Amino acid sequence: MSELTRMKCTPCRGGEPTLTDKEILELLPQVPEWEVVERDGVKRLERVFKFTNFLESLIFTYRVGQLAEEEGHHPVLTTEWGRVKVSWWTHKIKGLHRNDFIMAAKTDRLYIRFKAEENIDAERVLRVIMSKREIRKYVDREVPEEVIYKILEAGRLAGSAKNRQPWHFILIREKQNLEGLARFGDFASHLQEAAFAVVILIPDTYVQDRFDAGRAAQNMMLAASALGVGSCPITLHRQEEAKKFLNVPPELNICVCIAFGYSAGEKPRGKVIRKPLNEILHYERYGEKIKPF
Ligand SMILES: Cc1cc2nc3c(=O)[nH]c(=O)nc-3n(C[C@H](O)[C@H](O)[C@H](O)COP(=O)(O)O)c2cc1C
User: Fold this and answer.
1) Class level of CATH domain 3-129
2) Deepest of 146, 186, 211, 285, by most Cβ within 10 A of its Cβ?
3) To test ligand 1's pocket by mutation, which of 130, 235, 257, 269 has the most ligand atoms within 8 angstroms of CB?
4) Measured distance CA(49)–CA(113) in Å, rounded
C-alpha cells in the first residue's frame, strides 16, 4: 500500500504553488491507476472505480464522501450504474497539490477494503448454503409477514426450464390447517408445530417441472436460513387426500411441502451424513476417478 495513505492532508490556504510536472511524475507511481487529466487548464487526478450495480456505486460514493469530510478535502464524484469517477484537485490553487495524491491513495485503499467486504459476503452466503440442516422442532413464535414475504420472493425468483415457472405456492399459516395437512405425510408430525408451511404445486407436464420446483424450494429454504428461520421439506404421501384438503385442481400435483419456523434450539438429527465428493464425482467420463484437487 502506498506510503501516501499514512499521511494527512495539510491545510491549503491558497497562494501555494501547484505541483510541478517533475513532482507529479515522482508521486504518480504510488497511485498507478490514476490518470492526470487537464480540464479547463486545471490538472486533476482521475480514476474510474468499477462496481456490479448502482447500489454499490452509491455506497462507495458515500464512503468517499465520508473520507473527504474527515480530511477536509473534497473531490468531484460522478456516480453511475456500476462506476464511480473520482476527481481530485485543489480548487484554491487551481491544480494538483500533494493532498490530492494523498486522497487518491486513500481512495484506492477504500476501494480495496470495499472489494474485500464482497469476499466476506461470499463467505456468509457459502456458510448459509453449506450449513443448512433440516429443522424439525420449532418454538411457538410467529414469523413476521415481511420475513415470510422475502422467503416467498426467493422462491418466486428461482430460474426454471424455458422460464416456465411451472409452480404455484400455497402458504399455510393457520394452526388447524397445519395440523390437518400433517395427517397426509408419513413423517410430517413436525408440520403441526411449524409457524407456517409452503406447498409447491406443479403441473408435472414437462420433464423439468420437479427440478424447477426443487430450485424454488431450495431458494426458499436458504433464504429462510439466512433470515434465521429453520425449515424442513415434507413429503405428503397421501397426495390425493392432501390435494382435496387444499382444494388443488386436478391438473396440478403436489411436489413438496416445506415446514418453516424458528428453531427450538434442538441439535439437528445426528451428524451431517453426506457421501464424500470422490464417491460421486467422475472426471470427464463416468467411472474416471483421477483426483485433481
Ligand atoms: C424431497 C424431500 C422430501 C423430504 N421429505 C421429508 C419428510 O417427509 N419428513 C422429514 O422429516 N424429512 C423429509 N425430508 C428431509 C430429508 O430427510 C433430509 O433432507 C435429509 O435426511 C438430510 O437431512 P440433514 O440435512 O439433517 O442431514 C425430505 C427432503 C426432501 C429433499
Assistant:
1) alpha beta
2) 211
3) 235
4) 13
How many residues in the chain? 293
Q: Measured in angstroms, how far is the CA atom of residue 210 from the centroid of ligand 1?
A: 16
The pLDDT tens digits for 161-209 are: 999 999 999 999 999 999 999 999 999 999 999 999 999 999 999 999 9
Distance CA 224, CA 153 (A): 11
Rg (CA), the chain: 29
| 3-class secondary structure, 37 | strand
Give residue 192 CA to ligand 1 midpoint distance, Å.
16
CA of 199 from ligand 1 middle (Å) equals: 15
Task: Tell which one of 183, 189, 202, 234 to mutate to probe ligand 1, the residue whose CB is within 8 A of the most ligand atoms.
Answer: 234
Report the topology of domain 145-261: NADH Oxidase (3.40.109)
Among candidate residues 73, 62, 65, 126, the one with its CA nearest the CA of residue 98 = 73
Ligand 1 pocket test, pick from 136, 187, 266 with the greatest ligand atom count within 8 Å of Cβ, gives 187
C-alpha cell belonging to residue 128: 448459509
List, for residues 201-234, the tens digit of each pLDDT value: 999 999 999 999 999 999 999 999 999 999 999 9
Under 8 Å between Cβ of 30 and 2: yes
> Which amino acid is located at 86 in the chain?
V
CA 100/CA 9 separation, integer angstroms = 8
Residues with CB under 6 A from ligand 1: 133-134, 136, 185, 187-188, 232-235, 256, 268-269, 272
Maximal C-alpha separation, the chain: 87
Domain ranges of the chain: 3-129, 145-261
Distance of alpha carbon 95 from alpha carbon 14, whole angstroms:
11
Angle between helices 145-156 and 209-226 (to 10 degrees): 150
